[in-house]
Amino acid sequence: MGVSAVIFHNSGKVHQDNELLSLMNRVENELFLDYLKKLLQIPEIDKVFAVTSVKDHKKLREDLEKLQKLPQQQPQHPRQQQHPRQPQQPEPPQHSKQQHSKQLQQSKQQQSHQSQSQSQSQQAQSQRDQRDQSARSAQHCRTTQLIQSAQPQTQLEIINSEQEGSFHLGKTLQKLVTDYELDRVLVSGGTALPLMETWELGRYIRELQDRDDFMITNNPQSGDLILFHPARLVNEIPQFASDNELSNNLRYQAGLPQKLMDKSTAPLFDIDTPVDLLLYYQLTGKPSWLMEEYGHLFARLQNKLEEVSRIAATDYRELILAGRVSGNIISYINEHLRVRLRIFSEERGMKALKRIQERKVSSFMGNLLEDLGPQGLFSYLEKVGEAALIDTRVMFYHMKRGLPDQQGADLDRFYSDLFLYEYVQDPVIKEFTKCGYQSSMPLLMGGHSLVSGGIYALTSLIYRS
Hints:
The chain has 15 helices and 11 strands. By secondary structure, the protein is α/β, with parallel strands linked by helices. The protein folds into 2 domains: 3-73 and 152-264, Spore Coat Polysaccharide Biosynthesis Protein SpsA, Chain A; 269-464, no CATH class. β8, α10 and β9 form a beta-alpha-beta unit. It is globular and about 60 Å long. Residues 69-150 are annotated as: Disordered.
């Protein structure tokens, strides 16, 4: 009952004439290769299908060919692996010095009464730990031997999407499922969830192996990583053009029971925009060349990130979140940060429900922007908030601006995220970006990931510092 992975990577055109698009393309190609390497280390995966365009990407084509020829690495048993480089769950913020001093004094009084019982407890616990360690070591040896003796050879097949005609995710997946008689599949984009480690992916894949008529995804509204059985359902549900639509149709049309991945940074954080890339760099130091070669593009955004982080780390400051904000994110902030929240949540699932494609996005914040103008909108926000994270796509698409199928829209959105309003072509987005940059309230602007996994990433950065 092996699992097949189908990874779609839109490598697009080589943008030699634009530094920003060239950067994002370079990052996406590197993440794609890293993702394939992770999948090839998971023994439960029989085959990886990499669907991409390599016509204009000589280096990507060469790297993929090298990856096909590499011997597969011996996977480590989870007990052998180091823990993932995941941000630790933040501890509660510090109380005031006066409260801390009082608590410390009370703690010392309690310690004198507890020291004797603690000593006895520690001695008993030590004996139990020794017995448990011996049992774990024996089990570990047996499991490792089984893995090493049953190691399958994962195959990588590269499918050039240009040779398949006009690329369509749904039709390509249907053809692969039919031609190769796939049964249990993992489907995602080529840069999905870059913080997720191999052992985490393996855990969800093993869970899929153990259950029939079942799906696992990272987001209930618009999944970026979907594992499901049976694969034949892709030929029975309404046509879909994206992974977001696929997860929605499997849940609501096919009726598959859905399990959500653990709520943490890795399953929720995605890189779609420059602000996502900067957060990723701050967390991991990757790509190592980013600031040396492209630091001038990120200077304004870096300053805004520092200002927003400082306010979010301070007790009872006013934080605004606008866009596709989930209830889970609100709960997470309430648990880990002592800020007062002002939430304007709207248009969740707008991509999966084809609301962007059908020009149906409707936004409260977008209406305010149209009525008040950019200066008026930010003036009102400054009265009720001290920092903000704004999913600008909801407002832009409400105004029919910066839409994915409009020429130059990617650049306008990305330059807006970087506060480089001088380079934005659309006059409305240009003025909006300029007013955001000049606002007295520090803010970050981006897409859905900013108000989803980006919140987890930002919180982790706050507690690191």
